[in-house]
Amino acid sequence: MTDRIDSFLRPSVPRAFMGVIVACVAVHLLTLSPALREWAMLHGALWPQLLQDVRPMFPGQQVTMFLTYGFLHGGLLHLGMNMLALYVLARSLSVAMRGGAMVALYVVAQVVAGVVQLWLSDSPYPVVGASGAIFGLAGAEIAIAARIQLAKGGSLRLLAGPVLQFVLLNVALTLAVPNIAWQAHLGGALAGVVIGALYRPRLRR
């Protein structure tokens, strides 16, 4: 009985997100081959040209690329940072958000991140990575924490530190990593904040 209670109180990563992590790692390992890497990029990356006059590799690629680009990464460091962030955020957010809602949030944030990236950026290069969706989880967590604080009659000053860290992290990544898609980060974060602000959190007591 005690084990069951401890398991309920302890945050855990929803299985769907463990699946995402495994899938991203598997895709990266499979695409270590230059030929497979090229094929995956051509068929799965987020290409701005596909919304212009460039012919897609297959019918519907203009739509599927908004989902598939999140499973591709630019390198081992890019993959490792994203998967670690995904694990930590999915684990902490599971305290207040149900697994199905988190999956929906993740998908919406990834799509919105891609849309904002193509809208604000004039770069011709393809975009890859789960960063936009991960920033969506972070944005939702901040918004939910703010709602909880306000419901308790507390001050939002307690969130100043996490929000500042969140902003500084994005700025640091933008300056440190070349060609980083900060527009996608912004889009994902905004989507997360909106969904988090509308979501009615469930709290484990």
Keyphrases for this structure?
205 residues; Rhomboid-like fold; 9 helices; mainly alpha
In short:
The protein has 205 residues and is mainly α. Helices cover 67% and strands 0% of the residues.
Describe this structure in words.
This protein is mostly helical. The protein has a single domain, classed as Rhomboid-like (Rhomboid-like fold), CATH 1.20.1540. The chain is globular, with a radius of gyration of 18 Å. The N terminus is likely disordered.
The global form is globular
Helical content band:
55-70%
Largest sheet: none
Work out the number of β strands.
0
Average pLDDT confidence is: 86
How many structural domains does the protein architecture include? 1
Task: State the fourth-level CATH superfamily.
Answer: Rhomboid-like
- What is the CATH level 1 assignment? Mainly Alpha
Structural class: mainly alpha
Q: What is the number of helices?
A: 9
Strand content: under 5%
| CATH architecture name | Up-down Bundle
N→C terminal distance:
16 Å
Rg, rounded, reads: 18 Å
Order of helices and strands: HHHHHHHHH
CATH domain fold name:
Rhomboid-like fold
Report low-confidence residues grouped into runs of 5 or more.
Answer: 1-8
